[in-house]
Amino acid sequence: MENIQHKHVEVRGLKLHVAEIGSGPKAVVFLHGFPEIWYTWRHQLVSVASKGYRAIAIDFRGYGLSEQPAEPENDTFIDLVHDVVALLDSLAIDKAFLVGKDFGALPAYLVAALHPERVSGIITLGIPFMLPGPSAVQNHLLPEGFYISRWQEPVGRAEADFGRFDVKTVIRNIYILFSRSEIPIAAADQEIMDLFDPATPLPPWFSEEDLSVYASLYEKSGFRYPLRVPYRTLAVDCGLTDPKVSAPSLLIVGEKDYVLKFPGIEDYIRTGAVKHFVPDLEITYMAEGNHFVHEQCPEQVNQLIISFLDKHGI
């Protein structure tokens, strides 16, 4: 960890925070989800760099140590796609592997679909190819208290829910809730933060020190942008019709990841329907893996990532 270098890189008028280790000729760019940040890839950065790759993790715009856009309410997933391409330009990287977790999978796939010449391969954790738009997540098939529906509501409700607690408590609550195999759904008279039992300990693979790092970064950025992207922009049509990802791809699925219980998602993956969009796709299941499988089982995930990189990094 102490060998990871940090800097800010000018990208489309914003300074993005970049964590980097390794100096190999082939680059691997890691894209976080929520409530994650660059630090979520701490195990993977060191492991990938030790095998001769240039490993890079960013804080997306509006997250952590990266700058906020002037008008975050106007942003969509396409802004993240443009940021990734511009970042590659700024770092003089012609082509890279992209690794995306949670919502970070969406811009990873979209970069590959829109700019195939820039992508050597795609690895995603938990989230298959998904096109932002009205049908991205079938909210209407889940109860009103579904966490995505609650966080997509007009500005105010989620902010008030989070605002009852300090940032560290919010991150703790979400990490514990999202580590379970059940979808977080609140009752009519509850908010999402009310689902948390203060007596519940952190998962054994996530330390108080880890939590403090996350909290310090979200204290810097707050939750304004994360509630916009991904949640309030997830249903915004990105203007693509039937995109294809030609790059070799790997999807790592924890079988105890609650996302598998989203309407249609498990069938979409297990039947191979996802390969309509990503024809050259390998799918690997981890029996005990949860939504944070890369932090929960880092050695197994690192091995899968490195095997894929070595296979396709010709």
Please summarize the sheet with the most strands. Answer: 8 strands, mixed
Low-confidence stretches: none
On the 0-100 scale, what is the average pLDDT? 95
CATH topology (fold) name: Rossmann fold
Pfam family, one: Abhydrolase_1
Family: Belongs to the AB hydrolase superfamily. Epoxide hydrolase family.
GO molecular function, one term: hydrolase activity
InterPro entries: AB_hydrolase_1, AB_hydrolase_fold, Epox_hydrolase-like
Task: Write the topology of this structure.
Blueprint: E1 5-11, E2 14-21, E3 27-31, H1 42-50, E4 54-58, H2 77-90, E5 96-101, H3 105-114, E6 119-125, H4 147-152, H5 157-163, H6 167-178, H7 208-221, H8 224-228, E7 249-254, H9 265-270, E8 281-286, H10 293-296, H11 298-312
Parallel strand pairs: 3-4, 3-5, 5-6, 6-7, 7-8
Antiparallel strand pairs: 1-2, 2-4
Helix pairs in contact: 1-11, 2-3, 6-7
Labels describing this entry:
314 residues; alpha/beta; Rossmann fold; eight-stranded mixed β-sheet; 11 helices; globular
Write up this protein.
The chain has 11 helices and 8 strands. It has one domain (5-313): Alpha/Beta hydrolase fold, catalytic domain (Rossmann fold, 3-Layer(aba) Sandwich). Helix 1 crosses helix 11 (298-312) and helix 2 packs across helix 3 (105-114). The radius of gyration is 18 Å and the shape is globular. The model has no long low-confidence stretch (mean pLDDT 95). Helix 3 links the parallel strand 5 and strand 6. Strands 1-2-4-3-5-6-7-8 form an 8-stranded mixed sheet, sandwiched between helices. The chain is an alpha/beta fold and 314 residues long. Helices cover 32% and strands 16% of the residues. It has helices at 42-50, 77-90, 105-114, 147-152, 157-163, 167-178, 208-221, 224-228, 265-270, 293-296, 298-312; strands at 5-11, 14-21, 27-31, 54-58, 96-101, 119-125, 249-254, 281-286.
